[in-house]
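Hi all, a correction to my earlier message: I attached the wrong file for Multidrug MFS transporter. Here's the right sequence:
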Amino acid sequence: MGGNQMPDSKQEQVYNITDSDDGFSDISKAYLISKRCMDLMFALIGVVFLCPVYLIIALLIKIEDKEGNIIFRQERVGKNGKLFYMYKFRSMVSNAEELKATLLEKNEVDGPVFKIKNDPRITKIGKLLRKTSLDELPQLFNVIKGDMSLVGPRPPLLEEVLEYTNYEKIRLSVTPGLTCYWQVGGRSNLSFEEWVELDLKYIRERNIYIDIKLIAKTILVLFGSKGAF
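and the right structure:
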């Protein structure tokens, strides 16, 4: 697996943010327990049924690039600022992080997030994986571990969080997710401000019905290419 070593315990928590800190969230324990049970059930079922897909993707990645890792492991910021490793199928060349410095001026998203269309670091199989969001499938293991949920704000990079305003840090008050309003409502076509507002809308209104609806919408748009970069 790729990625850097996990920082020591003194650095593992970036911020201490709880649900009560966001000023508009009042979530019951029953919802949180139900959400966790749903996460485990769907994630475990998904891993079992998608095993053949995992194997095919792994084979295709290795055929294109024998030297690189199949799984890309990257440090992300989770609930209450806790750092964890998020897993993805590798969709970029092995030295993608080193090349990022040469592409910063081409960033097409405002705020602390870095994204560009036609990123030259993306491999041929990587383009397909990203277009179909299949590169995200290993995050089902993050869900099983409890670092992530099926639904919630996407987990940011530490370098992005360090540029957050206090208002934007509210995104860190809940467990990050595989999908969210941003994933099904425009993705990279949205500005960072719109992205944050959608995440805070979810935090304010979240319930099991909304979670199930977002999961269903995600399945419907899974193979769509709109905004997928």
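Sorry for the mix-up. Strands lie at 71-77, 83-89, 149-151, 177-179.
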